[in-house]
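Input sequence (139 aa), recorded before submission:
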Amino acid sequence: MYISSSQMHNVLADYTKRLEKNRVSNAQRPAGSKSPVDRIDISVGGKRQAVVDKVAANIVDRITRFGPQDEMDREIVKQLKDEMGTEEKYKDQDPVEFVFNVIDDGSDKTTNKLTAEDSSVLMKRLEALTREAVDKNMV
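Predicted structure, token format:
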């Protein structure tokens, strides 16, 4: 499923408006009223982090399945390439190994494979870069 950055921005903007509206209505509530017992209050920072984590997980899944789809995806992959010194080709992959192509300055292509243990480092960094990009782009 493809989710464009503008759709993601609209969802996050709507979420922010709802949070603000809820905050205003809570401020207008009489001081003696209590919130329902079965309700769990999460800090704004916690809610934001949960949204960032969920959106980042969706983006990482999309990048690893279909490759970078929009400008933010390409920026994240470029940053990963710059840090790791390789250019990856994303596609559906065998769960035990990560296959990627490296294109050097002479336009020669080399196919490489990483074991699941080695690829976990790459995937963790991709997830971290994605979280940073999502967090930076949230309004």
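Checked by second reader. The helical segments are 5-28, 44-66, 71-84, 116-137.
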